[in-house]
Amino acid sequence: MHFTLKQIADLVKGEVVGSPDIVITGISGIKEAKEGDITFLANSKYAPLVNVTEASAVITSREPLNTKKALIKTDNPSIAFTAVLDLLLPSKPQHPKGIHPTAVIAKDAVLSKNVSVGAYTIIEQGVSIDEGTIIYSGCYVGQQVKIGKNCLIYPQVSLMERVLIKDRVVIHPGAVIGSDGFGFVRISGNQRKIPQIGTVLIEDDVEIGANVTIDRARFDKTIIGRGTKIDNLVQIAHNVITGENCIIVAQAGISGSTILGKEVILAGQAGVVGHIQIGDKAIVCAQAGVTKTVPPGITVSGYPARVHHEAKRVNACLQSLPELYKKVKELEDKLKELEDKLKK
User: Fold this and answer.
1) 3-state secondary structure 53-113
2) Fewest beta carbons within 10 Å, which of 54, 117, 162, 262?
3) Which of 2, 100, 172, 238 is catalytic?
4) Residue 44: predicted pLDDT
5) Residue 90: which residues within 8 A CB-CB, separation 6 or more?
6) Residue 330: which pLDDT band, with cuts at 50, 70 and 90?
């Protein structure tokens, strides 16, 4: 399958710079691309690669770019590249269709039309699954779970009792939604478990990565807000509430009863203590340890997390410690010499 540069530009509503008749037969990353491929540039720091890539054309933003390479200039290169990906690689994975004969489904479970259930999946009593939802093999859907329309649940996902999943939710393999919150109290030297009787609510258009764990609330609900995207290996504790369209990156951890505002970003391995708030559009940098409430729109980093520009100054001072120690030692030696001379 092949297309001219003009045909692709028309698809993405872009502007061709160079020959519109260049034939595109493949698609690849800017470093890996070969002749005949089209690639894209979404981050300006990779702009030097445009002149060395072997790709026949590059999808870019509308910003000026000094290159002889054929371009398609667009408003959003990433979105345009996604559309071209669908064009040049139209074959998609075939999801399960229908109900596999090995699936175990409770008699009172309600499955709407066009629901698909893969092999060896277990669906317990009182479950309802709305139309168009696909559940892969080896999943567990606990008692009274409610799943909305057009959800996609990959293999080995566990949805524990009374979890609520809204529409168009994607859950990747190995995720566990609704396990008990980590609640214990010390009594007479022993740790006594505190019952966790709440649930989890996953709102519309959420995507949850592989091996994510989201704990049920002690009371009421742990809530993942509409449009939020969660990377792999994230832990979200009981009674956490995330606002809409948050981004939570791999290995981040959020302790119990913390509230995230709208469009919050937690970068990789960020850790957040419990019972605080992170304001709308705040950014927590990678490996930051957040110990207190973060105001809206603030970027924080470091441990304990502080405003990013302050954290950078602290880190710069830390990097200077070896040299500072050396200078202090030299001053101590000189001071001792002076003291010895004065004693004589």
Assistant:
1) CCCCEEEECCCCCCCCCEEEECCCHHHHHHHHHHHHCCCCCCCCCCECCCCEECCCCEECC
2) 54
3) 238
4) 87
5) 1
6) very high
Q: How far is CA 28 from CA 1, 66, 82, 87, in A?
A: 15, 22, 11, 13
The token duo for 38 is 């089209």
List C-alpha distances in Å: 187 to 85, 219, 238.
Answer: 59, 22, 22
pLDDT value of residue 294: 98
Give the single-character DSSP code of 180: P
- According to DSSP, the residues that pair with 186 across neighbouring strands are 191
Residue type, 186: R
Q: Where in the chain is the domain with CATH 3.40.1390.10?
A: 3-88
pLDDT band at 89 (very low <50, low <70, confident <90, very high): confident
Kindly report, residue by residue over 51-87, the tens digit of the pLDDT: 999 999 999 999 999 999 999 999 999 999 999 988 8
Cβ atoms within 10 A of the Cβ of 269, count?
A: 16
List, in sequence order, every residue forming a beta bridge with 27; answer none if it has no partner. 38
Q: What span, in angstroms and rounded, lies between the C-alpha atoms of 5 and 39?
A: 12
Q: Residue type for 100, please? A: H
Residue 95 annotated as catalytic: no
Class for the domain spanning 157-304: mainly beta
Q: Taking a C-beta distance cutoff of 8 angstroms, is the pair 235, 254 a contact? A: yes
Residue intervals of the chain classified under CATH 2.160.10.10 are: 157-304
3-88 adopts what CATH topology? 3.40.1390
pLDDT at 91 over 80: no
192 pLDDT above the threshold of 80: yes
Residue 93 has a pLDDT of 79
